[in-house]
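New here. Invent one.

***
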Amino acid sequence: MKAIMKKDIRGITVNKQLFMTILVVPLVLALVVPTIFMLTVNFAPEDAGELKRILQLLPAGDQSGDIRQVFTRLLFLHILPVFFLIIPIMAASVMAAASFVGEKEQRTLETLLYCPLTVKQIFYAKVLGAFLFSMLVSWVSFAAMLLVLETESFFLNGLLLMPDAGWAAVMLLVSPAVSMIAIILIVRGSAKAQSMMEAQQKAAFLVLPLVLLVAGQFSGIMLLNVWMFAAAGAVLAVLAWILLKTSLRNFCYEKLLM
């Protein structure tokens, strides 16, 4: 199983086209978009109506103080964590989509099935390889975002940003659970798909609810806090475990070779 996981991860990292595809989303969501927000709020007039309307989303006790620092905290503690639910899905979607259909395209599936592993073990190896890769991309993106935002916030506002319990719930519970659910669904779809493009289409439907959640954060429909993140993470973790245990029903060699 470890050999299969290493082979899949190596196959992604040595393929420049696929690797660059994976890097685009973390680069945009973790570095470009937060930087645009930071520059916008720091160079916008303090009496800008749009900024004041956004700050009204916060509880009354959190609206006091310098408008730029308050907006920076709103961005860092409430909006950006949702981005780290999208990043692992998009990072894992490429590798998960290529899990079985990639073997078919390279004509190595029959060789894989001859290895001394059961179908269940092969499936778990494919899922765990994509999961570890997605978590690595997510944590590296988080470290890069934190470094860039800390630098920008310090020089622009004199404010150092500290991740709170909400960030811990997202990075340690919600993000891994969401990533695992997405990977299981995509790997199962990869076994039936005839091309990587067909397998990757499922990822778009998985990301759509998260895009709507980001929109909800900006509009004030649902401003997530640590308790919401923790509750959602617990539910999603249970769902991921159930999905992993039940994912192999009716999953056999014949379906892989179709």
Notes: The radius of gyration is 21 Å. The mean pLDDT is 76. The longest helix spans residues 67-105. DSSP finds ten helices and no strands in the chain.
